[in-house]
Amino acid sequence: MDDQSFLARRLDRAAAPLAVGDVLVVMAFLTVGTLSHTSTDFLASNPTYLLGVWAPFLIGWVLLAPLVGAYSAGAAETAKSSVPLVVRSWVPAAAVGFALRAFVFRGGAALAFVVVILVTGAVALGGWRALYFRLR
């Protein structure tokens, strides 16, 4: 019988660089999307605006990604194991982000937005992880 808790089995220290990169990638693609819909002048005059954009999705990511296995031992081994784990983690994490965005933070969750964020997030996170394993 394994004495490790469920969460302990889902977290591997070797995946720490992946966790840092994942958070930066989520922030980056949300920033790029925001910049495509708002002006830099608006962001300069509303310095906390991006925090409200990032927060719901980062909360969803921090809550769900470890549970799904984005930072498990398998995630830290190869791109072949890591990329599917990060994509599978993104879907429920984004769902939490959409709910938080619609009910707690500013913004909504229109269908077009949901599709764009799901696809863009999966491609960005999967691409980052594939690149990480290619370069290491």
UniProtKB/TrEMBL annotation:
Keywords: Membrane, Transmembrane, Transmembrane helix. It comes from the Archaea. The keyword Membrane applies. InterPro entries: DUF3054 (IPR021414). The keyword Transmembrane applies. The chain crosses the membrane at residues 14-33, 53-73, 85-104, 110-132. This is DUF3054 domain-containing protein.
